[in-house]
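Incident log, entry 3
Record: 1,3-beta-glucanosyltransferase (457 residues)
Problem: checksum mismatch between cached and fresh output.
Input:
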Amino acid sequence: MKAVNTLAFMAAAVSGVTAAGTPVLAQRATTTVTPITVTGNAFWKGSDRFYIRGVDYQPGGGTGAVSDPIADSAGCARDIPYFTKLGINAIRVYAVNNAVSHDDCMNALAAAGIYLILDTDTPLYSLNRDDPKESYNSVYLQSVFATIDAFANYTNTLAFLSGNEVINEVNNTDCAPYVKAITRDMKQYIAARGYRSIPVGYSAADVDANQFLMAEYMNCGTDDQRSDFYAINDYSWCDPSSYTTSGWSQLIQNYTGYSIPLFMSEFGCITNTRTFQEVAALYSTEMTSVFSGGLVYEYSNEGNGYGLVDISGDTVTITDQFTYLQTAYANTTDPTGDGGATTTAGAASTCPTASSEWEPTNDDLPAIPAAALKLDSTGAGTGPGLTGAGSQESGDSDTESTGTATAGSGTVTETAGSSSGTSTKKSDGGRIAAFDPKALSVVLVVLLGMAGGMFAL
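Fresh output:
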């Protein structure tokens, strides 16, 4: 390992340092990049196919403290030069403080040509997989919408994630209608507030029994219900491996014909020494007709062995994994042209039928709670940030959904009656184990045990 002081790489990202030596990001309030759009089953930057080449980024995620890396100007100044060194064009962040400014970091990322894929949940404001009906409420959605407000006007906001690994076992697919409803609500809010069309989708757990069923479900129904993309967390390629041995060839077989963009929101098995041989496969024409790249888990070492770097204050220490990934990205070019993508709008998937591995019985969704629907007109207002009372137990007659929104109804409105088509039982699924999806922190097992969304294993 080679220890490198961050200040040696600051020239491109900072305008100077404070008297105490803390880097200060230059003000780039007008820094813009070309927004990423969706056409067919791919992402596009203007007329060029856009492949996600990135890392998951949540420094401190395994320490027990929840912090917002995009609000940390000094941290961004420290880390952006390493993003550039890796050759990445995107980062995924799992939690942010929606009550503070993110101008410095977002503009510095834009100046470096780096886009943000952002989870809208936080530990306190997220879906509880053990009680999805109560936790799908207007208090939660207000926080989600406030996060959209905070990031929608940055041109390098690539996409929003409506949840992460909420369904993580065979027996908790009863959460699916609520995940899909949140996705629908986010899309409706973005449109109602007049923002550009920022893609919204879901990040699915590496669970063979229902990952593809969830993909079909998130892409079935009317356009207002369907995801703009689907993402999977996949750890099946463990070096040394191959396109066939890893099962990636089966992934391609399963998802061929899937009509919305698909990418890996986490990848990078650590069972053996990971040299990132899979990077060459992911950006080959064997994969690019279906996948639009992915994000390596994860940038910083959070005590679980997945880190590319170690961080201590202002100093970043590069690990062997960083060098392997840097080399893998440098040696792998994107295919020319459209990479085999479908360039016209595709048909919706067929909704999966109820079975022992899939609980939803139809494609009806819980209607958006009336109090949350009003925010489409008024705006979300100030977000609760990373503190507050939380939302998981805020469901009551004033904040919960009280009806269903039938597929094909177009505009999502609340209807009278019980939530037929959605389950109200408490799932037998496991509770959330940690803030960082792969972290081993026992403290967070207790503190975040009730949270759903991003914080699921």
